[in-house]
Amino acid sequence: MDVPEPGEGDALLAPGAAVAHAGVVYPSELERVYMGRAASFDVERASSLVGTSTAVLVREATKLLRLSGALVVSSLASFLVPVMTLAFVGRNMSKSELSVVALASSFFNVTGYAAIVGSLGALETLISNAHGASSHALKGVILQRSILITMTMCIAVIVAWTRMYDVMILAGQDPDLARSAADYLLHISPSLVFLAASDAMKKFFTCQSLVVAPTVAALAGTAMTFLYNWVFIVVWKWGLRGAALAVDLAQLTPCIILYTWYTLRERRLREEGCDARTWHGFDFTARGAFGGWGEYFKLAIPSAAMVALEWGVFECSLLLSGLLDDPSLHVAVMGLSLNFSGTVYMLPLGVSSATAVRVGNAIGACLPDKAKRSAWVSLALTVAMQVGLGIMSVVGRQAVGMAFSDDEGVIRATAEIVPLIAFCMLGDGVNASIGGMLRGIGRQEIGAKYNLLSYWGVGMPLAYVLAIPLGMGIFGLWTGLATCASLNGVIMYVVLRRVDWHAAVTAASERRR
Q: What stretches in the chain show pLDDT beneath 50?
């Protein structure tokens, strides 16, 4: 657990003092640090740290960057699995087959993975809060509960995917394209189960600031993805079936590594007699894996909605690109641009995950001011990072299309919309940072509400009107996306300014009862 340092507290109260709010007693920061170690209490050193806000902020920024750096590597490596497959298809198959993979991947994300990974925001909230409160056994129970729920969701999604051809036709897609995409989607459906299981374990580790296992697993999965695609697509020439098999095996690899790592870690902790053990056998009681589902879904549903509403707009824009002239070209360009945007988004997503951990741990430890500071430092770091990424993207825009395709038309059309993607990055970054804060305090319903307003009330209608009736094509689609991302970024900034941090601590305490 991240032990608070002198100078990081709510008010640096004298030992023995405490703050009370809504029935929850908050020990002073110094009291928490030196509780049980009174002989080592150094009043002069603690007093010298009062008012050193710059040093405290720098220390917080350093911790966020250290944690987010590992999470960025893990997230980027995981994201590159389907992107790498898309690149192999784009360079070794036809433009129509590239469109099939792009369309199927879009439906995979918006109709399945978005809801699964979004629901795991509940796990993120509960584990980070429990870790902050040193409730180790509770963390194991929450993990069991989360895996059961996500596996149930996966089964429901895969059953629904058997009718995805009809859905694609209703969405206005070309019948031949829809038939191939629906078939490819079913062949990559096992990867949804592997992704859900591995993502649950990744969040379990990272919410305890344990980042080595997720990073190793993600890097191994990415490395094997290259091998799987090279063998199945280039050497054996299995076409789309080979691409699908590569995706399935690439997601299975990190899943095996993570669960093996967890088993070995728990065995070592048991042999050492350590209190930090989280696995005490499968809990079948009413307070165990099969209980508490209502409380879990109170967080999981708005968390899934928050992610699905945002992802859905970007994926729906891919469907709209299929309604433009020359659908094969425009679906390919939109698919490539979304994959580029998604790749770059892994950086603020890593900071977002680190923010959820830092804020959630502080809330669980009854340190509201520390949670507030983590949220604001995260926002500042994210804004600076996104501005830099946007500038670099515009400067190197010609290379974006070339990384995924050899088709001159695709490369040229992709380069034309990169400036809009760069503009979209700032809003995306702000939303990611503050979204992490909302997960940390368990207020995902706020993000879901404003994502619905910004992305679907403003962004999607604007993108449609600009792209099709006004004839702006993909440029119009990205104009709508950039507008809603920026609008939501402004709204999220206002949300951050109005958070009641003491109430967040009270709510977290009640959830653990």
A: 1-52
Phi-psi region of 473 (alpha: psi -120 to 50; beta: other; left: phi over 0): left
DSSP 8-state assignment for residue 23: T
Return the structure tokens found at 446: 């706020």
What type of residue sits at position 384?
A
| DSSP label of 93 | S
Beta bridge partners of 441: none
Task: Single out the residue of 269, 225, 272, 227 nearest to residue 250, CA to CA.
Answer: 225
Q: 24 φ, ψ to 5°? A: -105, 130
> If you search the block for the tokens 């993805």, which residue do you land on?
225
Q: What is the pLDDT of residue 256?
A: 97
Reported as type and span, the H/E element at residue 24 is strand 24-27
Judge if pTM exceeds 0.90.
no
* Domain-wise residue ranges, the chain: 1-55, 74-511
CB 221 within 8 A of CB 139: no
Question: How many CB atoms lie under 10 A from the CB of residue 260?
Answer: 12
Which tokens in the block code for residue 111?
């109709």
Three-state SS sequence of 322-370: CCCCCHHHHHHHHHHHHHHHHHHHHHHHHHHHHHHHHHHHHHHCCCHHH
Name the strand (E) or helix (H) holding 513.
none
Question: Nearest to residue 433, comparing CAs of 491, 380, 367?
Answer: 380
- The two tokens of residue 333 are 């360009």
Q: How far is CA 503 from CA 296, 297, 397, in A?
A: 19, 21, 46
Beta bridge partner(s), residue 25: 20
pLDDT of residue 436: 95
Q: Which residues make Cβ contacts (< 8 Å) with residue 248, sequence separation at least 6?
A: 187, 188, 190, 191, 194
Tokens of 79: 């994201």
Q: Using CA atoms, how far apart are residues 128 and 363, in angstroms rounded to an integer?
A: 9
* Closest to 233 (Cα-Cα) out of 219, 220, 218, 250: 250
Of 163, 158, 242, the closest CA to residue 193 belongs to 158
Nearest to 426 by CA among 360, 493, 474, 473: 493
pLDDT for 365: 92
